[in-house]
């Protein structure tokens, strides 16, 4: 721990802190955050090596305990915020999360509460990210916006009237699973056809690329890469080199994403849509067609009003910040 | 005015009343409503015969003035609630309403306020209907539901966290214009392709019927009706007679509506979807396929949870009740 950090902490000795935990399919990030979004301590551990949840929680506790001590002890911590795929805000559970090793309905919040002796708030990872953007990121001072995370999958968090929409059962904001192409591409995780996630995630861009390579006989840098190795980063690299097919792949992805965003705008009329995650690194190759096709599908009253923003939070910190931000919303 | 009504009014002499006005493309309904939803006075006048808005407001005032007098004078009225196509809640305007004779952006709320000397709240007709359902109808005590009006067009009002979603610009809930079939049927009013309204409105069912009659050579009672006279009621009548093609037309309509409802569920995870309007009269011919296709497109966490309800408010009163209910929500 640096002297600088110690000093900072002494200056605000009475201020409460929050723990943020982001549980991903591969790794789990955790940290201790102050109210203005400074990440005082942080670390990462493996999620997938724990096939059952109890040893996972034991290891998480061992990782966090010394940080809690250094931060001034458990009395200094207001609570623990957790973001996890299929996390349920009302029940503090993780339910049927396809990307986690633990199956069924897990009373995760209660288990963490018992272990850490701290109040816990839990929601899905994209909802946590939305709260993070509202407190520290691109959506500050916004009352109506939609957060879309474009990673391996597509997640979302929706804020309306200044509040996150959790819905009646706590699962609102599964926009990645909305159907955009009826009877379209099969999604292995859900068994459904034509969902946004099947086309506009990193996985989707890879599948779009394979389809374009097969359908067209246009020359392309991508043809030099073994099929099993093609991913969205390589499509981006090819586009930078001027590869026409790579640009067409992003245009197609942006067409589907833009159409979906138009539908979301006509639902909740947000001030902005904040995009986050790996796919946004492709910049205007993906953003320009997305904007164009969104506008093309909007009816007049919505046209040229809704901003598409890219999150400027550091990807490694954003998930922890978002999860910790849930704590400040606790009653 | 009946003695019964006078008595009722004397008993609650101190209770404020609200005026509700529903402005439709053809007619305008108005009435005076008490806080528990009793329609004390009501009437209807033509909308479309007034090509400009000023004489329309003059006539509306002449219609309502004697009712206001009988209700105890203007001091007894808390305010006026108005539902109108493309009504904007924040600006009290009606903007570019395709089905009204008045073009452009009309400061309708302000004009009514000046004429009646009463505070005015204005929103789109489907939002007003949603508030009406929440106060007096199928959505009582619900905090998260979606109202869908299936009439000549498709309108919607969305309630989340117990509040209507107006969105950043006041136009949220245009679900009839969400794209369900990419590059699908052209919509004359908007110039867009494949919107829900193009398929699942009364107009849409008529077009579905014409398409089915042309594509198939199945015998059908509908073939005896001149094409220009086929409407959703006749498709319903034929279905009741056991007409297979008519049932297929409703199945197709329900497939598209069900897919759209699944998308809306994955957005805001409502407790129920309340359907209202002419198309619901087709009962299970439309409701059963709608439910089935909705469930088929939902991911696991939403399945078998969301109720599809049909509004039980009397259609002629519901619009006035909904508009008047806005007044009780006024600050």
Question: Could you please describe the fold and organization of this structure?
Answer:
The structure is a homodimer of 331-residue chains. The first copy, chain A, is of the alpha/beta class. Chain A has two domains: 3-132 and 316-328, Nucleotidyltransferase, domain 5 (2-Layer Sandwich); 142-311, ATPase, nucleotide binding domain (Nucleotidyltransferase, domain 5, 2-Layer Sandwich). In chain A, 39% of the residues lie in helices and 20% in strands. Chain A contains ten helices and 13 strands. The first copy, chain A, has helices at residues 3-11, 53-70, 108-116, 125-136, 196-200, 202-215, 232-240, 244-268, 284-297, 315-328, and strands spanning 17-23, 27-33, 39-46, 77-84, 87-88, 93-95, 105-106, 120-123, 145-150, 154-160, 163-164, 272-276, 307-310. In chain A, strands 3-2-1-4-8 form a five-stranded mixed β-sheet, with helices on both faces. The first copy, chain A, has a five-stranded mixed β-sheet with strand order 11-10-9-12-13, sandwiched between helices. In chain A, strand 9 (145-150) and strand 10 form a beta hairpin. The two termini of chain A are 31 Å apart. Mean pLDDT of chain A is 93; it is low at 1-11.
């Amino acid at each position: 721990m640096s002297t600088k950090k110690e000093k900072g902490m002494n200056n605000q000795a009475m201020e409460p802190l929050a723990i943020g935990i982001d549980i991903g399919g591969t790794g789990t990030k955790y940290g201790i955050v102050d109210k203005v979004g400074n990440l005082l301590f942080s670390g990462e551990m493996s999620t997938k090596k724990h096939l059952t949840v109890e040893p996972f929680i034991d290891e998480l506790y061992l990782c966090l305990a010394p940080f809690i001590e250094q931060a001034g002890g458990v009395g200094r911590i207001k609570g623990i915020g957790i973001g996890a795929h299929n996390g349920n805000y009302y029940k503090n559970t993780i339910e049927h999360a396809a990307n986690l090793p633990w199956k069924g309905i897990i009373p995760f919040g209660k288990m963490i509460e018992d272990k850490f002796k701290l109040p816990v708030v839990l929601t899905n990872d994209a909802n946590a990210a939305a709260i993070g953007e509202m407190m520290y990121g691109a959506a500050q001072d916004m009352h109506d916006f939609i957060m879309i995370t474009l990673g391996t999958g597509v997640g979302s968090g929706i804020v309306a009237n200044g509040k996150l929409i959790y819905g009646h059962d706590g699962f609102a904001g599964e926009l990645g699973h909305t159907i955009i192409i009826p009877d379209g591409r099969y999604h292995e995780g859900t068994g459904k056809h034509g969902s946004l996630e099947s086309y506009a995630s990193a996985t989707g861009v890879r599948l779009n690329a394979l389809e374009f390579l097969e359908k067209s006989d246009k020359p392309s840098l991508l043809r030099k890469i073994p099929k099993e190795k093609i991913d969205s980063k390589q499509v981006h690299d090819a586009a930078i080199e001027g590869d026409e097919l790579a640009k067409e792949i992003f245009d197609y992805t942006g067409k589907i994403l833009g159409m979906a965003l138009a539908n979301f705008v006509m639902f909740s009329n947000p001030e902005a849509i904040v995009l986050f995650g790996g796919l946004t690194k492709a910049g205007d190759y993906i953003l320009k067609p997305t904007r164009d096709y969104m506008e093309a599908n909007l009816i007049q009253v919505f046209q040229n009003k809704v901003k598409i923003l890219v999150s400027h939070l550091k990807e490694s910190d954003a998930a922890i910040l978002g999860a910790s931000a849930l704590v400040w919303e606790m009653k």
